[in-house]
From TrEMBL:
PROSITE patterns: TPR
This protein's UniProt keywords: Repeat, TPR repeat
Residue spans of the TPR repeats: 21-54
Name of one Pfam family that matches: TPR_8
Name listed for the protein in its UniProt record: Tetratricopeptide repeat protein
Span of the signal peptide: none
Length: 337
């Protein structure tokens, strides 16, 4: 059967589907609710590209970046929204303040929180912004020594934490586990003890159990710094560097406010071989309670050595050996890679 070129062509009943920004946005929100953050980023980026005049899509993308710990990326998106749409989206100021606080850029965090509160009306994040500003102002009054190991008004807790810390520093895992187990029962709000318990458990040979503890916690709190620190350390110790990489990458984008957390991140980056970044993090430490610890001397020394500063490395190592004689049995910073 032949068809004449002159015969009319039947119109197709098929209506072509052209995805809209709303289509991509909906899929992005669904992925976000299921905590599939990378997929959510992909969908939201498509939504922004499809409809750049809808600031809601960009704002939601920034929220997902914040969940991922990509605080710089989140603030870049929010800056673009403010530049394009002006003061219509004043919530951006609070979101940026929150991101700067996570990055440890406290002056910027304070500035944007104040800018948000200066806007007319009662914004959705008014109470949260006031709480953030109060916390930032309290940190300004601090002497830099505050960290999660120091609650001076809790004498019993202080005794427990110092005892646990001593055993951890001496690598006396059984003793540390015993103390930390009691701490988690007596002071359930002191969550750092649970993470230190998992660390001691791993180092005491119960690796699978320790990893399971942190993975379950991470499912509930994807941005928990201690989970990423522990899992990065555990997986690296097992030689699973590829599995550890996402945790290291997350920590590279995190600049905590507390000195203790800063030390954890610096140590972990040094373990991963990000020596230059680790050195910068160690230089930022100033609290007495962290710069006199074994891990500080050990990993700062190693990072300094591998960034071309052997004299600094040797000075740190020798000082560490004076306070922690067991460190001398580990050879020196040149042994570790």
């Amino acid at each position: 059967m032949t068809t004449s070129l002159d015969s009319p062509i039947k119109e197709s009943n098929i209506i072509p589907f052209v995805p809209t920004g709303h289509f991509y946005f909906t899929h992005g929100i669904q992925a976000f609710k299921k905590r599939r953050f990378q997929a959510a980023v992909k969908w939201l980026k498509k939504a922004v590209e499809s409809d750049p005049e809808e600031p809601l899509y960009a704002c939601q993308l920034s929220v997902i970046y914040t969940e991922l710990g990509s605080y710089h990326a989140a603030n870049q998106v929010l800056t673009d929204v403010l530049a394009k749409f002006g003061k219509e989206y004043v919530d951006c100021y609070y979101l940026m303040a929150n991101n700067y606080a996570h990055l440890g850029l406290l002056n910027d965090a304070k500035k944007y929180a104040e800018t948000y509160l200066d806007q007319p009306g009662d914004g959705e994040f008014k109470e949260a912004a006031e709480q953030l500003l109060a916390m930032l102002e309290s940190l300004d009054e601090d002497d830099g020594d505050d960290d999660e190991w120091a609650f001076d008004d809790e004498d019993d807790l202080l005794i427990y934490q110092e005892t646990a810390f001593y055993h951890l520093e001496q690598e006396e895992w059984e003793e540390a586990l015993s103390i930390l187990d009691e701490m988690t029962e007596l002071f359930p709000e002191f969550t750092l003890a649970r993470h230190k318990y998992a660390y001691a458990l791993f180092m005491n040979g119960k690796q699978d159990e320790a990893i399971e503890i942190e993975q379950k916690w991470l499912e509930k709190e994807p941005t928990n710094i201690h989970c990423h620190v522990n899992l990065a350390t555990f997986l690296l110790e097992q030689g699973r560097s590829e599995d550890a990489k996402p945790h290291f990458e997350r920590l590279r984008n995190v600049f905590p406010m507390h000195e203790q957390q800063k030390l954890f991140v610096a140590e972990t980056l040094a373990r991963a071989g990000y020596y230059s970044e680790a050195v910068e993090r160690f230089r930022m430490l100033k609290g007495k309670q962290v710069v006199q610890r074994r891990v500080y001397y050990k990993w700062y020394s190693i990072a300094a050595y591998h960034t071309g500063n052997p004299s600094k490395a040797l000075h740190l190592w020798e000082k560490g050996c004076q306070s922690f004689p067991k460190l001398s049995s580990e050879g020196g910073p040149w042994i570790h890679r």
